[in-house]
Fold this protein.
Amino acid sequence: MEKSKKLKRSFRNIFLEFRRWLSPGIGIKRWLVMILVGVTLLGLGVAVLVIDFYRNTDNSFWMQVLSFLSLRFLDRTIRALIFGGVGLFFIGVGTVELNRSLLKPFVKPGEAILDTISAYRKKEKGPKIVTIGGGTGLSVLLRGIKLYTHNLTALVTVTDDGGSSGELRKSLGILPPGDIRACLAALSDDEELMTQLFQYRFGKNAGINGHSLGNLLISALSDITGSFEDAVAESGKVLAVCGKVLPSTLHDVKLVAEIRLPDQTKEVKVIGESQISKIGGTIKHVWLEPGNPLPYPPAVQSILSADLIVVGPGSLYTSVLPNLLVPELAEALRVSKALKFYICNVANQKGETDGYKILDHVRVIEQHLQNQHFDVIVCNNDFSSKLPSGVEWVKADPELEEQYSVYFAPLVDKENPWRHNSQLLAETILDLFFERTGPLLDKQSVKE
């Protein structure tokens, strides 16, 4: 009795598993139909041969064998149901087990193959999202957004001239790989060993000036492939990146700032992204030299075809604005029909945005990009965590909501309260997006 119940449960589980393979959206049914048609035609071919042999043989023994195997002692309808049912069962079990064997190397331990395929298909159909920024802020955003869509493009600044990136830029003459490396790691489908390896930074005693392995890899690939953009694409393949990381321009540009000194006596010109926040004064204006660099064409195309464009978070003057200072990129942002969100930082950056409120961040962007409009400004309203000494919260102005469409939500990472929480930020952005795009898509349909 117990064995009979176990057998029934086993058949029921097989049936339910097979039925799940027929669920919409995972791209399986069309191939199952093709397999079924192929097997049917093969069966017809074999049947023609068997019938021909049956009609032309004089051996009574083989006649009896064929009669028994073809169940001629049963009604023809019953025979058709038996053979058809057994055939479908074998096709179903064989297809499921074949896919399980083929896909096993690509499925994470403990995850069901069907769940992995279903999640992948849903994210393939996710909204086209373009993020603009650089540094840690952008990688935090990407780590959350990638759970909802594979149609994700990160546009990254190339003005970094400090640390490992700055040294490689000077010695090898390539674009700075640091911010791009961080975004590639954030978008990687493998958050474990490969990402850690890509982010690994050698100690200064290792003799290679504290460079990260990812920076060295991108530099080597630039030399091998002959172009920086190809090196970034190949690095993405190594990390199994879900999405694209693109430089805003391929020109060797420098970020320049006009800064009023702390004593308010005069204004000075500061060249180099790494130097701007060291002066400690008030940044009045930033621009690129040489001016009017051409954008990277795929970056423009991604903006024009996007469903949603997210600007920020990140250092206002040294991560976000450098992308928007590429004229044709800024123009593409203005004319794009996509929804446009600005993500304001949760905390001010020392030496760059000291004392800034949310309205100050928005007005700085408007000052540098005339006629730029954001559909929503997303801001943090959770100030319960304790910030490090010298770091201040970015808070709202009384007139902010009178002038702009603003959405407040608790977005702080409790472990690093000066940064956003990836998951909370991504959920907020997708909620706002689907709220404005209607019921054609919903967040649950694309979430992993």
About this structure: Strands lie at 129-133, 152-156, 244-247, 254-260, 267-271, 282-289, 308-311, 339-343, 376-380, 406-409. Residues 2-118 form one domain.
